[in-house]
Design brief:
The protein has one helix and no strands. The chain is an all-alpha fold and about 140 residues long. The radius of gyration is 56 Å and the shape is rod-shaped.
Length: about 140
């Protein structure tokens, strides 16, 4: 009877071990499937990340190009501004010279007018003296 009991316990232990083994294998399979899903998600995430890196690189490159184009335009505008300033200074100097030339002409005309007035008054005085002598 003790032998039968031992056999029953052994059979129960074997049955329990078989059930545990089955559950273990099911859990292993479940974990393996979960691992495969996680690997697939990881690969998908890595691919997405790489895509984002590429897109970011393209956007960065495009932005660099835009910034460089804007920088070149700014340089061009600055150069045009400097040319305009130089042109303005030159025109201003020309106008100042013209004003001085015109002022010199006006001064010369006033001097000539003063000379003409002086000669006129002299001649007038001479004519008055001559007229007085004639009278």
């Amino acid at each position: 009877q003790q032998l039968d009991e031992e056999r029953d316990r052994l059979k129960k232990a074997q049955l329990a071990w078989a059930e545990n083994q089955f559950e273990y294998e099911e859990q292993q399979e479940s974990l393996r499937q979960l691992l495969e899903k996680q690997k697939a998600k990881l690969a998908e995430t890595e691919a997405l990340l790489e895509s984002e890196r590429i897109q970011f690189g393209e956007e960065r490159s495009a932005l660099k190009s835009i910034i460089e184009a804007d920088r070149l335009k700014l340089q061009e505008i600055e150069q045009l501004l400097e040319e305009e300033k130089a042109s303005f200074r030159s025109a201003q100097a020309d106008l100042e010279k013209q004003i001085l030339d015109e002022q010199d002409k006006v001064d010369a005309l006033y001097t000539r007018l003063a000379d003409e007035q002086e000669r006129f008054y002299r001649e007038k005085d001479n004519l008055e003296v001559s007229l007085d002598l004639v009278r």
